[in-house]
């Protein structure tokens, strides 16, 4: 599992430019599913057919990561940029960014007090000495991502892009183990989640599922003086109750809790005060879809060094496997 996590987190895939990630996932999953297809927005859809009379379950994990886009190049070759997705100021200063063409730069700030820092006071130094030299390396409109390597700390793993490549890993590991499921499973590796759940909206319309489950990261409350939240690393899968985009259907929440209890899968309940997942788009599809989320507890979300616990990841995999064979009569 760690090998796949390293491959996916180190891949290039800001919102709208996820092809490197989806191509990699396709090579991993195509031998384990009945059908693989890509839709117009780039969502990769891997289907495992279920028994007659089973339900259609959409399991969504997004492939995109937060990033930056170049907006201006000055005469000295420094780049100005805008955020792609929820990029905060604190993780930027002093960090490196990598562009699709391979150029790497350092993000730094103009002079001034930290309290007055805004995005327009930051720039990227790619080592160019003139605008012309810079333009040979990076063009206006080019997207970039944090440049950080995967690090294995034992049970704890650190990388950029855990949000939500780790959800993709949960889907991959589950689909590899599921054999002859009762329900037809649509593992959808979605695009452009970080900029408005866009891939999930169109994919859910096409799939038209009976049940929707997002596989995504969630915050934790287990670091020094963290916001109070009853989610910690190492305590199991997080079963969502609500977030900014979704109040989980009570039957879906109860189903996931029941399955975790039956299979002795460690779990914790997640109430996320801000943020959302693809389930926010799925549950509003057509006439509505009962939806929920299985979340991977993650520290330092939307930073270049997001941390997960491999035991929580395995618990999420086990919960997806349990759901695949569940009789969903009365749920959807």
Tell me about this structure.
It contains eight helices and 17 strands. With 332 residues, the chain is α+β, with helices and mostly antiparallel strands. It is globular, with a radius of gyration of 20 Å. The two termini are 32 Å apart.
Give the terminus-to-terminus CA distance: 32 Å
Structural class: alpha+beta
What is the CATH architecture assignment of the largest domain? Answer: 3-Layer(aba) Sandwich
Strand order of the largest sheet: 1-2-12-3-13-16-14-15
Task: Output the CATH homologous superfamily of the largest domain.
Answer: Zn peptidases
Order of helices and strands: HHEEEEEEEEHEEEHEHEEHEHEEH
Number of strands: 17
As residue ranges, the low-confidence spans are none
CATH T-level topology of the largest domain: Aminopeptidase
**Main β-sheet: number of strands, strand sense, barrel status?**
8 strands, mixed
Helix content: 25-40%
Q: How would you describe the shape?
A: globular
Average pLDDT, all residues: 96
Secondary structure tally, helices: 8
| Count of individual domains | 2
The CATH first-level class of the largest domain comes to: Alpha Beta
**CA gyration radius, whole angstroms:** 20 Å
- Strand portion, in percent? 25-35%
Please specify the SSE layout and strand pairing:
Blueprint lengths: L1 H9 L8 H11 L5 E4 L5 E5 L7 E7 L4 E7 L5 E6 L11 E4 L4 E6 L12 E4 L5 H5 L7 E4 L4 E2 L3 E4 L2 H16 L6 E7 L7 H10 L3 E8 L18 E6 L7 H13 L4 E5 L7 H4 L8 E7 L8 E4 H15 L8
Parallel strand pairs: 3-12, 3-13, 13-16, 14-15
Antiparallel strand pairs: 1-2, 2-12, 4-5, 4-9, 6-7, 6-9, 7-8, 10-11, 11-17, 14-16
Helix pairs in contact: 1-4, 4-8
């Amino acid at each position: 599992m760690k090998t796949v996590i390293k491959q996916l987190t180190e891949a290039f895939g800001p919102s709208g430019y996820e092809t490197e990630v989806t191509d990699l996932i396709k090579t991993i999953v195509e031998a384990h599913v009945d059908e693989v297809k890509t839709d117009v927005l780039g969502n990769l859809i891997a289907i495992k057919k279920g028994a007659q009379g089973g339900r259609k379950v959409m399991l969504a994990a997004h492939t995109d990561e937060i990033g930056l886009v170049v907006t201006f190049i000055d005469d000295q070759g420094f780049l100005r940029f805008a955020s792609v997705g929820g990029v905060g100021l604190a993780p930027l200063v002093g960090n490196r960014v990598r562009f699709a063409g391979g150029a790497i730069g350092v993000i730094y700030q103009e002079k001034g007090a930290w309290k007055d820092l805004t995005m327009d006071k930051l720039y990227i130094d790619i080592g160019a000495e003139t605008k012309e030299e810079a333009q040979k390396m990076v063009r206006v409109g080019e997207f970039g991502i944090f440049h950080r390597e995967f690090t294995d700390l034992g049970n704890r793993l650190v990388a950029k892009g855990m949000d939500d490549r780790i959800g993709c890993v949960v889907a991959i590991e589950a689909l590899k183990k599921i054999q002859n499921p009762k329900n037809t499973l649509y593992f959808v590796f979605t695009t452009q989640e970080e900029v408005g759940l866009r891939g999930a909206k169109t994919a859910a319309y096409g799939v038209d599922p009976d049940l929707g489950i997002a596989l995504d990261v969630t915050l934790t409350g287990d670091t020094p003086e963290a916001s109070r939240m009853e989610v910690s690393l190492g305590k199991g899968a997080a079963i969502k109750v609500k977030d900014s985009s979704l109040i989980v259907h009570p039957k879906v929440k109860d189903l996931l809790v029941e399955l975790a209890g039956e299979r002795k899968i460690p779990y914790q309940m997640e109430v996320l005060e801000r943020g959302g997942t693809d389930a926010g788009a799925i549950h509003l599809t057509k006439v509505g879809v009962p939806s929920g989320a299985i979340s991977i507890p993650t520290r330092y979300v939307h930073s270049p060094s997001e941390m997960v616990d491999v035991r929580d990841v395995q618990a999420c995999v086990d919960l997806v496997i349990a759901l695949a064979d569940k009789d969903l009569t009365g749920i959807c």
